[in-house]
């Protein structure tokens, strides 16, 4: 079973847009083929489907786009983090080690449970249910957010993260990210929601969620990267490259859009989208 250029490009576009929008890329990866039907529906039902291999490449492309956008930030944070092993800790080093701490729970749980959870819940009806739940989580986070507008205006992103996200808070956010193992729950959405509940302003919560996304997406892609180079996948090299290129561009564009969006706006529109698509899909696949 293979994949056409059109299918790879459309899949790359969906992946690039939804990976960092708080609407669950994995949920869309399950629901979109099911809605289209025909040969598309086999991507998630045929045991010989190349879909997983394709998504590895697309996620790697998204990770590279994320790294490109935040490259200077990562250089500063990583340098400060490793220098803090020999010198006095700084605000930047605190943020770096909070990211490391928050990555450990989701990396551990993902390694242990990812395969079984995806096989169990990567059905259209289950994904529709979790997408609806995702919308509810976003609304709850918005309603319970207690960030201070006065504090927001005078603190930098790094200062706000260092002050509001403790070691315990970072661990909690890391476990919250693990819910994205359920197809339909957005990793970015739940990370940002957890940040809001810790008292971060919207722009800082989204900034922290972007930083948290890179190690998880990049690590998961690299762990499965050898599958791309298996002999049985060589005939898909062209479509995979095309889809990856589209995924890279779409991810870059979506990050640029979201950075501006969360400077002044909220998660509510994304929550409404998740509710609408989730409920319609529940009716369709029940």
UniProtKB/TrEMBL annotation:
Claim: Membrane is one of the keywords in the record: yes
GO cellular component term of the entry, any: plasma membrane
Ranges annotated as spanning the membrane: 51-70, 95-113, 125-141, 205-225, 237-261, 267-285
Keyword annotations: Cell membrane, Hydrolase, Membrane, Transmembrane, Transmembrane helix
Localization per Swiss-Prot or TrEMBL: Cell membrane
InterPro entries named in the record: UppP
GO molecular function: undecaprenyl-diphosphatase activity
Pfam families linked to this entry: BacA (PF02673)
Family the UniProt entry places it in: Belongs to the UppP family.
Protein name per Swiss-Prot or TrEMBL: Undecaprenyl-diphosphatase
Topology of the protein relative to the lipid bilayer: Multi-pass membrane protein
């Amino acid at each position: 079973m293979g994949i056409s250029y059109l299918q790879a490009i459309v899949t790359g576009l969906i992946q690039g847009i939804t990976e960092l929008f708080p609407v669950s890329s994995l949920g869309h990866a399950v629901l979109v083929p099911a809605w289209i039907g025909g040969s598309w529906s086999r991507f998630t039902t045929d045991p010989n489907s190349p879909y997983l291999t394709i998504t590895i490449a697309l996620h790697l492309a998204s990770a590279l786009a994320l790294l490109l956008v935040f490259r200077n930030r990562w250089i500063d944070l990583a340098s400060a983090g490793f220098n803090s092993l020999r010198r006095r800790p700084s605000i930047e080093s605190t943020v770096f080690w909070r990211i490391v701490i928050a990555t450990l729970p989701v990396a551990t749980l993902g390694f242990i449970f990812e395969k079984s959870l995806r096989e169990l819940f990567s059905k259209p009806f289950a994904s529709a249910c979790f997408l609806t739940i995702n919308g509810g989580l976003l609304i709850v986070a918005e309603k319970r957010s207690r960030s201070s507008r006065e504090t927001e205006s005078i603190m930098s992103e790094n200062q706000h993260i260092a002050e509001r996200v403790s070691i315990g808070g970072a661990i909690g956010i890391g476990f919250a990210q693990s819910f994205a193992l359920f197809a339909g729950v957005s990793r970015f959405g739940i990370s940002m929601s957890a940040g809001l509940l810790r008292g971060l302003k919207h722009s800082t919560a989204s900034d922290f969620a972007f930083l948290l996304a890179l190690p998880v997406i990049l690590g998961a892609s690299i762990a499965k990267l050898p599958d791309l180079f298996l002999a049985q996948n060589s005939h898909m090299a062209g479509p995979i490259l095309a889809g990856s290129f589209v995924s890279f561009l779409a991810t870059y564009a979506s990050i640029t859009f979201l950075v501006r969006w969360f400077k002044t706006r909220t998660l509510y529109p994304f929550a409404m989208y998740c509710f609408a698509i989730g409920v319609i899909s529940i009716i369709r696949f029940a």
